[in-house]
Amino acid sequence: MELIRNKLLPFKTVTLDDLDKVKLMNRSDSKFCMHIAQLPHILEALYAEYSILKINGEIIFHYDNTYFDTPDNKMFISHQNGKRNRFKIRVRNYIESNLNFLEIKFKNNKGRTIKERVVKQEFVPEFTANEQIFIENACPYDGHVLEPKINSFFKRFTLVNSQFTERVTIDIVPGFRNPEKEITLSNLVIVEVKQNKSSDPALIIKVLQANKISSNGFSKYCIGRSLLEDDIKKNNFKPLLLKIRKYYFN
User: Fold this and answer.
1) pTM, two decimal places
2) Distance CA 161, CA 46 (A)
3) Which label site among 11, 95, 189, 191 has the fewest CB atoms less than 10 Å from its CB?
4) Among residues 65, 36, 67, which one has the least CA distance to residue 171?
5) Who's near 244: CB < 8 A, 6+ residues apart?
C-alpha cells in the first residue's frame, strides 16, 4: 500500500468542487481488472494528463456499501442473464467524510449508466418513507420488499483528466461479506473509466490496452455474491470468477 501511495504523490491535485465539473451521472463506463503489481507502472504513464482528488490532505478513501435485491434476486438474475435495462440499488458510506447516500444505478439498452441518489442520514439497511418514495419513482422495485444481500468494501482514489471530460476510479483491496462469510481480494485492482461519450478512448484506456489489460465487466454486487454463495446461479460469471480465484486471492 505504501508503494501505491508513493506513486500517487507526483499527481497534481483537484478538489471536490473541481470534480463537480465531471459528475457524469449519465455516462458510458469501461471497467478493467488487473493485478496490483501492475498498478505502479500504469500510474507512471498518467502523471502528465491526470490529477487526483484530494480532500483534507487525503487521497485514498474507504468505501462501504450494502446492496439490496428482491427476495427472489431479480436484479442479480437480470445481470447474470445478460439483460439490458437493469438496476442496482445500494446504500453507500463514504467513511472519511461520514456521508451516506441511497443510490440507484440503471444500465440501459444502449450501454449507458444513469445514476440517481439521495442523501441518507444513517448507514443502515432499511429505508425511510421518503427513501421508499425515491425508490418507487426511480425504478420498478418496491422498497418495502427489498432485502440487504451483501456488503462490499474497498479503498479508492479518483483521477480526472485535464479537460474534465473523464473520471477514473481505481479501487484496491476490494472485499465482500455476508452474515456467513467474508472475502478480501488483496491483489485485485478494479479500474472504472467514466466518460460522457465513448467514441474517443480515454488516455488511460490506451495505456491499459498497451499493457495487455483488456476491458471486462465487473459488478461488485454480482461477483461478490458469486464468490460468497455456492448455490446461486453464476454461469455467465464463471470465466471471471476463475480468473479471480487464480490471480487475485492471497
Assistant:
1) 0.93
2) 9
3) 95
4) 36
5) 33, 185, 188, 223, 227
Residue 45's domain is classified under what CATH number? 3.20.100.30
Cell numbers found for residue 236: 455467465
Could you report the per-residue pLDDT of 153-201, keeping only the tens digit for each?
A: 999 999 999 888 888 999 999 999 999 999 999 999 999 998 876 557 7
- Look at the block and give the residue holding cell 480468473: 243
Q: Name the phi and psi angles at 242, rounded to 5.
A: -65, -40
* CA–CA separation, 250 and 188 (whole Å): 10
**Positions of E strands within 135-248:** 147-161, 166-177, 182-184, 188-195
Cβ neighbours for 118, distance < 8 A, ≥ 6 positions apart: 101, 102, 130, 131, 134
CA–CA gap between residue 67 and residue 90 (Å, rounded): 4
Dump pLDDT digits (tens) for 192-231: 998 876 557 789 999 999 999 988 889 999 999 999 999 9
> Where does the chain have alpha helices with state H?
2-8, 16-19, 39-44, 74-80, 129-138, 203-210, 220-228, 238-247
Domain count, the chain: 1
